[in-house]
Amino acid sequence: MEAIPFVDLKAQYNSIKAEIDTAVSDVIEQTAFIGGEMLKKFEDSFAQFCGVKHCIGVGNGTDAIFLALKSLAIGSGDEVITSAFSFIATSEAISMTGAKPVFVDIDPETYTIDVMQIESKITERTKAIIPVHLYGRPAEMSQIRELAGKFDLRIIEDAAQAHGAVYSGKKIGSIGDLACFSFYPGKNLGAYGDGGAVVTNDEEFAMTVRKYANHGRVSKYDHEFEGVNSRLDTLQAAILSVKLKHLEKWTDARISNARYYSDRLKKTGLRLPVETDGIKSVYHLFVVRQPDINRSRFMDDLNGQGISTGIHYPIALPFLKAYAYLNHSTDDFPEAYSASQQVISLPMFAELEHSQIESISSAVMKCM
After folding, report:
1. Residue ranges in the chain assigned as alpha helix (H)
2. How confident is the model at residue 104 (pLDDT cuts 50, 70, 90)?
């Protein structure tokens, strides 16, 4: 069987090669490498795509969360609530401000933050909640907004895996006070290097983020405070502008592939992604789960047949060495711990063909 990669960035590039090459050539010919009209064009287009007024391109998704937190004046002595199951960038950005990350367990069906457990973690030091739209599935934003309103908290959406996802008719990115995106190459909307963005409807937050990301200034030498250097370069913005035009089509293909997977794997006993009315997942990853198999052997068997797999994520955040100082045990977050031991990510990308999914599904059934 022909090898099937986990993600095929070359196939995506080949499908839009002429557009990408032209965009890159235009940037080089104009020597417009930092800022300028091409960056503004992407920021305006991505803001419109998300259904918000403002987009600020930044260096990467981690910076996006850090800068969003800084725009809310969150820092030392504050606490920020987030999911126990995500990539470390989510919690790392909280710590970067001097604030303390406070973890909440996940819903075992959706892998997003368990909204029923959030209130018990709120203290007088809590300033914000960062829900993570994990694997491209939106978190339960209605309940999170209710809690935020009740306790006067801000919401920062971690939308690094959820470009174009929808919750109750609203695009992810338009529901919280701010939202943060990553354009890492493997994302649904990926650059050809690092990149990220903060989006918001709040003009003051947008201006503060833009200043923090550009050395605390708006004009060249008028530094109002010490900021950082975190800019989305124009080359990446030009590439993202091209790819943004194709994103809805690619999202439709991901959804089609996810449903085809689910149909082919429904009799295997694997726990498959759930779909819910009013929630549109964009399937950044297609994650299955089975507590009754040896995961390492299962993945080795698939890899031996040329099928690439992954684990997102093998260690839940509270149990990383980085957070040993919080003294958490597996009993504190049983669902996050269980998921970390059982989840398996199968190949997922827009260009994945149904015939390849047939091959993957057949291999999965043989390995069980």
Report:
1. 9-15, 17-30, 37-50, 61-71, 89-96, 141-151, 203-213, 234-244, 247-265, 295-304, 334-342, 354-367
2. very high
